[in-house]
């Protein structure tokens, strides 16, 4: 499904501290059929500042979807997820956990904190790109995202 030129782009917040994974995600989304705008932050503190539109993020757009790594510096993804879902103004934003962890504890914790899905990053490059495109297809083409 393509977004017509009269519809706004889907805004995605990628919270990822690994520059290689961020670059791959950006490249996979750049080739997307759905028009999107991507903001990338490298840690949980920055993510919360952007979401709350604080400081240099005062004019940041509200994301329609958050792709969240769990293992982040300064404030990890679990803490970010907990803060997002506890905040009346942010809790409706879908959060897709995208992480290397396959630990059952991390999966359970993420869902207990109301993550909308949990995806383990593949180590294979082609598979990683396929997964990101699958996320894009599902969340940006199939799912009806909540309004701001």
UniProtKB/TrEMBL annotation:
> Which InterPro entries does the UniProt entry name for this protein?
CheY-like_superfamily (IPR011006), Sig_transdc_resp-reg_receiver (IPR001789), TCS_response_regulator (IPR052893)
A Pfam family annotated for this chain is Response_reg
Q: Which parts of the sequence belong to the Response regulatory domain?
A: 11-136
Sorted alphabetically, the keyword list is: Phosphoprotein
The 4-aspartylphosphate modification is found at 69
> What does the entry give for GO biological process?
phosphorelay signal transduction system
Name this protein carries in UniProt: Response regulator
Native organism is Rhizobium loti
């Amino acid at each position: 499904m393509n977004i017509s030129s009269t519809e706004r782009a889907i805004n995605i917040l990628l919270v990822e501290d690994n520059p290689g994974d961020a670059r791959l995600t950006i490249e996979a989304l750049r080739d997307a059929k759905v028009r999107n705008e991507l903001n990338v932050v490298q840690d949980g503190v920055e993510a919360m500042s952007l979401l709350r539109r604080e400081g240099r993020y005062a004019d940041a757009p509200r994301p329609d979807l958050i792709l969240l790594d769990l293992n982040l510096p300064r404030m990890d993804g679990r803490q970010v997820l907990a803060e997002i879902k506890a905040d009346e103004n942010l809790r409706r934003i879908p959060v897709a956990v995208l992480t290397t962890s396959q630990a059952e504890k991390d999966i359970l914790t993420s869902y207990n904190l109301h993550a909308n899905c949990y995806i383990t990053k593949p180590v294979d490059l082609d598979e990683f790109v396929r997964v990101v495109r699958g996320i894009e297809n599902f969340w940006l083409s199939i799912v009806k995202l909540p309004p701001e």
